[in-house]
Amino acid sequence: MTRSVETTGTAKIRETTRLTLIRTGLGIIREKGFNNSGLQEILQASGVPKGSFYHFFASKEDFGLAIIEYDAGEHQREMERFLGDTSCGAVERLRRYFEAKCRYFESRRHREGCLLGNLGQELADQNETFRVRIERFFADWCAALAGCLKEAQKAREIPAHLSPDSLAAFLVNSWEGAITQMKITKSTEPLQLFMDFVFGMLLKPSS
Question: Which residues bind DNA (predicted)?
Fold first, then answer.
């Protein structure tokens, strides 16, 4: 029994250490980029010794992939929370989802942007493993939005002639572009323009 408790306790400590590394690295990489973020800086910020890092991750690339998995998981839970809320219509769910994102970026003072979008721009031509994983993230994102848009069509909230898959891809591409402009202009105006166009014109109820 004692050995089992010790094993469980040790496993929890290891997982806590691993998550500390991932969350610390995520914050630094989101601000500075992958190539400009050094392991020593991440280790110092997290308070984790170098030997422990290599207990969890074989390389910086392995660490970067773990960060992508973590961030993708957080995003998936966020989508499930908003898009799975059946207390309101599908278009309203989408609106609340993007409004929450707008509030987040406003709280960050227009900095950092989308982590996986940033990594895609930085690494897609340098590392095929990263490119493929990030591509899958965006495909999953589009699929989730398309599912919600299909619900909106069934409920006659949006025009039937629109392609949910194409519309979902347009939303993701437009949002990522708005985030880039937000960082450049240091203003939430690009995000507000996205919201006004998408929910004031594109996704207006069918007449």
Answer: 38-57
Matching residue, tokens 């010790």: 6
Give the three-state DSSP class for 24: helix
Q: Phi/psi zone of residue 37: left (φ > 0), alpha (ψ -120 to 50 degrees), beta?
A: beta
Mean pLDDT (the chain, rounded):
92
With residue 103 as reference, give the H or E element that holds it. helix 90-107
Give the whole-angstrom CA distance, residue 181 versus residue 178. Answer: 5
Q: Which CATH number fits domain 59-202: 1.10.246.90, 1.25.40.340, 2.60.40.2550, 1.10.357.10?
A: 1.10.357.10
CATH, domain range 1-57: 1.10.10
Q: How far apart are CA 147 and CA 149, in angstroms?
A: 5
